[in-house]
Amino acid sequence: MALKIRLARAGSKKRPFYHIVIADARSPRDGRFIERIGSYDPMLPKDSGARVKLDAERAQHWLSVGAQATDRVARFLDAAGLMKRVPKSNPKKAEPGEKAKERAEEKAKKAAELVAAEAAPAEIPAEAPAEQAPAAEAETAAAEEATAE
């Protein structure tokens, strides 16, 4: 039987209150438990002594017989000095995922194409009248010669 030291929710809607309990890992969160060893009231300020109440002696006993604490309870036990919790570090947490990177690349590519498309037509019309102007002058010159003859 795998034992867990975990939180069981109590309290009313939008007013959470938790009991710190020893339970079989297979039992439901608020279901059957073996022993209640403390309480946690998240509505109280963090510096309040009544926020976390814990029977340290019983917690130490259950840890010695192999009970595993959940992450939140491990924080409480670490603060009480009963067990050492290794802080987790995830340096890639803020890095976007694969799909987000692909979308960003596609967006940048489209933006570059749009800038290139805006720049290219602006250059072509400027050159086009210059190319058309000599042809138009040649036509008018030819027409003048024809009328002069």
Number of helices: 3
Distance between the termini: 116 Å
Helix content: 40-55%
Given helix and strand content, the structural type is alpha+beta
Shape descriptor reads rod-shaped
Strand order of the largest sheet: 4-3-2-1-5
Task: Tell me the CATH architecture of the largest domain.
Answer: 2-Layer Sandwich
Count of discrete structural domains = 2
Query: How does the major sheet shape up?
Result: 5 strands, mixed
> What is the top-level CATH class of the largest domain?
Alpha Beta
Low-confidence residue ranges: none
CA gyration radius, whole angstroms: 38 Å
Secondary-structure element pattern, one letter each: EEEEHEHH
* CATH homologous superfamily descriptor of the largest domain: Ribosomal protein S16
* Total E-strand runs: 5
CATH topology of the largest domain: S16 Ribosomal Protein, Chain: A
Content of β-strand = 15-25%
Q: What's the overall average pLDDT, rounded? A: 84
